[in-house]
Amino acid sequence: MSQDPNRGDEPNSRVAALAGLAVVAVLVLIGYYLVTTLRHQGQVEDCLMSGRTNCAPIEAPSTGR
Question: Where does residue 47 rank: exposed (0-12), middle (13-18), buried (19+ CB within 10 A)?
Fold first, then answer.
């Protein structure tokens, strides 16, 4: 039983590489979501710790001419 040296495991390695890329992409998205959520929570907490009671964002009225 001799194996053909020209026949590699390219299909398997490509599938594994794509699966790894998908896992990394999902982890990056989860990390981005966590960072933005924690940043927002930190801003609200800083506002509350400074003694304010209304820490909702202020929306400026749009000027329509």
Answer: middle
- Dist CA 43 CA 55 (whole Å): 9
Q: Please, is 29 exposed, middle or buried when counting C-beta atoms within 10 Å of its C-beta (0-12, 13-18, 19+)?
A: exposed
55 near 47, Cβ under 8 Å? yes
Structure tokens at 45: 């907490």
- pLDDT (tens digit per residue) in 3-55: 666 655 556 788 889 999 999 999 999 999 999 999 999 998 998 898 888 88
- pLDDT score recorded for residue 7: 59
